[in-house]
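Chain A, query sequence.
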Amino acid sequence: MAGHYSRLVPAAQIRDFFAIHARISAGLSYNIIERREGMQMPWTERITPDWSHWNLTAWLRRPLPEAVLQRFEEPQEVFEVRFLEDLLARVGEAPDILTHLGYLYTQSGRHRDALAVDRRLVALRPRDPVAHYNLACSYSNLGRINQGFAALKEALALGFRDVEQIQEDEDLENLRGHPRWGELLSVLNR
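Chain A, predicted structure.
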C-alpha cells in the first residue's frame, strides 16, 4: 500500500549526514529545497514516506485472539451487562444506564447487583417513584420484606399508581404473601 505524505522540516534538523542517512534507510525520499534570493524561506527538505513495505492484508488475515472469539459465544444478556458496566465505568453515574443495567441484573438473577444499582438510582433520583418501585422489587427478590414494603410505600407516596403492575409483578411475589399486602392494597385503592 503506497501513500504520500509531505512535510517541511527545518534544515537545522537534517544537517547531520548520519541523520539523513538514517532517514533514507527508513524508506523516506528527500528533495532538498534551497533558499533562493529574495525569499524568506529557511533551508528545508521535502519528505515523502514510502509505505510500500507495509503489508496490511497479512495483518488483516491474522486470526482473532481467543478472548475476542469467546465474546461471540456469550449470550446476548451477558454481553449487554458487560457493555453497560463498561459504559457506566466511563461515563459515571448515568441514571438511564443504571435503570437498564438493574433490569438486566434482575432478569439474569443477579439480585444483589440489582439492589446495589437500585440504591444508586434512588440516591440519584430521590423523588422518582419508579426508582423506589424498582428498589422495592429488589428488596422483595432478596426476601427483605420490611425494606420492600418501606420502598413500595415511598413509591406510592411519590405518585406511583400502576395498580395492575403492582398486583402482577413477579418481583413482588414475596411481599404478596405477607399480611401487610392487604393493607397496602387498601391504601392504594383509596
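Strands lie at 7-10, 28-33, 44-49. The chain has two domains: 7-59, 66-188.
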